[in-house]
C-alpha cells in the first residue's frame, strides 16, 4: 500500500498542532489558577542557550506550514514572529492550520521526487528530494519543537501527559 505525501504530512501536522494548542490552553489555565505571570511560562527554557517556549511554538508552526507548502509547490507564508501571549500563540496555530487545510491534496502528487531547496542563496543551501525532506528533515524538526514545548510546560508543573501531546487522532 502506498501512502501519499499529503496523507503523510498534513494530517500529522494538524493532529500535533491541535495537541499543542490544547497543551497551551492548559498552560494558560495553570498560570491563572496558580497566579503565575504567564510570561514566566512563555519565556521558560530548560537551559540558557535554548529558545524559550514562545519561540518553540513559532518554529513548530513554521515547519507545519513550510513543509507542506514546499511539497505542494506553494509559496511559504511569512509570519512576523511577534507573539508574546498565549492568545497570540493560539492565533498563530489557528492561522497555520487554516493555511495547511487550504492546500490541495492533488498538488502533493509526485512530490516524493520534487527537489526542495533549503536556505536558497546562502552558504547553507541544500537540495533534497521531497520524501527525504518530509521524513528525514521536516517531521523530525517539527516533532523536536513540539516535544520541547511540551517538555517545558511539563517541567513547569502543567498537568499534561502523553495523550495531551499526541492530540486527537
What would your notes on this structure say?
The structure is a single chain. The chain has 169 residues and is mostly helical. The protein has a single domain, classed as Four Helix Bundle (Hemerythrin (Met), subunit A) (Up-down Bundle). Helix content is 56%, strand content 5%. It has 6 helices and 2 strands; from the N terminus they run ααααββαα. A two-stranded antiparallel ribbon has the order 1-2. Strand 1 and strand 2 form a beta hairpin. Helix 1 packs antiparallel against helix 4 and helix 3 packs parallel to helix 4. The model has no long low-confidence stretch (mean pLDDT 96).
Itemize the secondary structure elements and their pairings.
Elements lengths: L9 H24 L4 H5 L10 H19 L14 H16 L13 E4 L7 E4 H26 L6 H5 L3
Antiparallel strand pairs: 1-2
Helix pairs in contact: 1-3, 1-4, 1-5, 3-4, 3-5
CATH architecture: Up-down Bundle
Residue runs with pLDDT of under 50 for 5 or more positions:
none
Number of domains: 1
Q: What Rg, in angstroms, do the CA atoms define?
A: 17 Å
Structural class: mainly alpha
Contiguous helical run count: 6
CATH topological fold name? Four Helix Bundle (Hemerythrin (Met), subunit A)
The level of helicity is: 55-70%
Please report the distance between the alpha carbons of the first and last residues.
21 Å
Count of DSSP strands: 2
Strands of the biggest beta sheet: in what spatial order? 1-2
Average pLDDT level: 96
| Beta content | under 5%
Largest beta-sheet details: 2 strands, antiparallel
Output the CATH homologous superfamily: dinb family like domain
Oligomeric assembly? single chain
Shape: globular
CATH C-level name: Mainly Alpha
Give the helices and strands as they follow along the chain.
HHHHEEHH
